[in-house]
Amino acid sequence: MARQLRSIFTASGDMQAQQVRAFLEAAGIEVVERGESLRKTHGLTLDGIGAVEILVADADADRARALLAAADAGEFRLDDSAVEHEDH
User: Fold this and answer.
1) Helices marked H in the chain — which ranges?
2) Which of 36, 25, 13 lies closest to 68, judged by CA?
3) Which of 8, 55, 79, 88 is the S-S candidate for 32 at Cβ 3.0 to 4.6 Å?
4) pLDDT per position as a tens digit, 38-84
5) 85 in a domain, yes or no?
6) Going by C-beta distance under 8 Å and a sequence separation of 6 or more, which residues neighbour residue 49?
């Protein structure tokens, strides 16, 4: 039986889709992309043309949405004290 996939995000182009994909895969969530072929040939998004739908297994959908919401809220942002600057 094929696994059920659920759409959890619609990216506005290939670059955003790749960022979301990498973020979710780093958390151990397998991602499938579905979208317009124009994004590959022309690299643009206009009125939904070029949009990329991010799909994950039904079992991972809630966790994936929670991770994306946390990222959108800035929960993964590094503050200035976390980054060391070297003097050259």
Assistant:
1) 14-26, 38-41, 61-72
2) 25
3) 55
4) 545 555 555 556 788 999 999 999 999 999 999 999 888 877 765 66
5) no
6) 36, 38
